[in-house]
């Protein structure tokens, strides 16, 4: 993509100028803009180079192995931040290509943190951005490039919650939607949130207790990986019925969302047509839309395990309700044969002598702050669909799923 600037004087005499050229005052005078400049028009290609320049600048500092460096590229601004929602994500360079699916499915602002696990990751990033289409797509995003301290072995343990918090902090909208890079939102998710959820939340301001608006998560079996991501709920419903798609981690991880039992099978029930309520369960790790005033993620959790569970537990302890949105969803395709954490961080961290533990240290802290029963579904109403559908007594529910 080309990069040039058009300068015009008050007489509308215009000339085109290219970067990295040895222009002097005589050239400006000859074009009639040495003293009289009225307008400047810069081609899109010049704007797109910002993220590329940022990556190149970071490459020059990669020799500072003992220093953690974060550089930010600010993408397209939201027109109305008070009623908009930003998709938040994080990943390493091995997800750059696949994340394009997410970008194309989400029409709103996106803030991401890219973790450079190894020093040569910056070279892979620069090569990726040299492709004009990739540069154009990613330049619209707010991107934080994170170079860790390579001199410390801890950098191999992927700092997933730290990266989430960075991306949240660099976002500017009142609402955020934190997700992972391999989940593709339904094509109507952003417009649904903007046109239906946010107006409802604003209209009910002062009446609603703090609420996490949960997005149901589904997966497509690896054998059907060639199939396109479904666009509508009806398409997804057919795939679930055919055994092609299924709810992600139907046990403790996402089972409490009850997406298959309610949203996919049963007709809309009496009550709120926007969403249905479920009760919190221990070890649940949903994805949700929140107001940006919600607590950040606990940065002590690295790699996989407890990173989302801990956040949902804290929201429950703070008496948040959990409402599952209808008509929208997220999908990812199974890739167990290729799924791995950057630099083998997960496997290596499992061998660490000391790890921050969800079931011991974190739970003890939560009990000290919020009381003895933080896993009790504090914000759940007595008529929540979750209790009725699961037919579980509330003690078992609070104790957690198996």
From TrEMBL:
Keyword Transmembrane appears in the UniProt entry: yes
BP term (GO), one: protein O-linked glycosylation via mannose
Keyword Membrane part of the UniProt annotation: yes
Molecular functions (GO terms): glucuronosyltransferase activity; xylosyltransferase activity
Keyword list, A-Z: Glycoprotein, Membrane, Signal-anchor, Transmembrane, Transmembrane helix
Family matches, as InterPro entries: Xyl/GlcA_transferase
Subcellular location: Membrane
Pfam family, one: Glyco_transf_49
Entry's Gene Ontology cellular component terms: membrane
Major location (coarse): membrane
Superkingdom, natural source: Eukaryota
Membrane topology: Single-pass type II membrane protein
PANTHER family assigned: GLYCOSYLTRANSFERASE-LIKE PROTEIN GNT13-RELATED (PTHR12270:SF52), GLYCOSYLTRANSFERASE-RELATED (PTHR12270)
Protein name per the record: Glycosyltransferase family 49 protein
């Amino acid at each position: 993509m080309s990069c040039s600037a058009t300068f015009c004087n008050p007489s509308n005499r215009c000339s085109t100028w290219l970067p990295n050229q040895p222009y002097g005052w005589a050239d400006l005078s000859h074009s009639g803009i040495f003293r009289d400049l009225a307008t400047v028009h810069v081609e899109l290609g010049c704007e797109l180079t910002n993220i590329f320049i940022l990556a190149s600048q970071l490459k020059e500092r990669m020799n500072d192995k003992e220093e953690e460096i974060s550089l930010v590229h600010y993408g397209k601004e939201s027109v109305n931040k008070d009623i908009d929602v930003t998709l938040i994500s994080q990943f390493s360079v091995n997800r750059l290509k696949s994340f394009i699916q997410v970008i194309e499915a989400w029409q709103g602002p996106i803030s991401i943190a890219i973790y450079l696990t190894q020093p040569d990751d910056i070279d892979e990033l620069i090569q990726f951005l040299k492709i004009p289409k990739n540069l154009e797509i990613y330049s619209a995003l707010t991107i934080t490039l994170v170079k860790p301290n390579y001199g410390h072995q801890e950098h191999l343990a992927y700092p997933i919650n730290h990266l989430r918090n960075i991306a949240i902090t660099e976002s500017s909208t009142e609402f955020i939607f934190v997700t992972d890079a391999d989940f593709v939102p339904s094509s109507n998710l952003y417009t649904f949130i903007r046109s239906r959820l946010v107006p409802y939340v604003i209209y009910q301001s002062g009446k609603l207790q703090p609420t996490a608006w949960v997005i149901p998560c589904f997966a497509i079996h690896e054998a059907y990986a060639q199939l396109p991501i479904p666009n509508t709920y009806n398409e997804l419903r057919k795939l679930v019925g055919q055994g092609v798609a299924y709810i992600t981690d139907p046990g403790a991880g996402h089972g409490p969302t009850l997406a298959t039992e309610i949203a996919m099978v049963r007709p809309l029930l009496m009550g709120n047509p926007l969403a249905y309520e479920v009760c919190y369960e221990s070890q649940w790790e949903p994805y949700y839309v929140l107001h940006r005033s919600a607590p950040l993620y606990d940065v002590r959790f690295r790699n996989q395990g407890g990173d989302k569970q801990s956040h949902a537990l804290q929201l429950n302890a703070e008496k948040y309700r959990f409402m599952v949105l209808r008509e929208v969803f997220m999908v990812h395709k199974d890739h167990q044969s290729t799924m791995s954490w950057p630099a083998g961080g997960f496997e290596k961290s499992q061998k660490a002598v000391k790890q921050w533990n969800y079931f011991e240290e974190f739970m003890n802290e939560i009990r000290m702050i919020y009381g003895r029963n933080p896993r009790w579904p504090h914000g759940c109403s007595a008529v929540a669909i979750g209790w009725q559908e699961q037919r579980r007594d509330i003690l078992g529910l609070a104790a957690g799923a198996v």
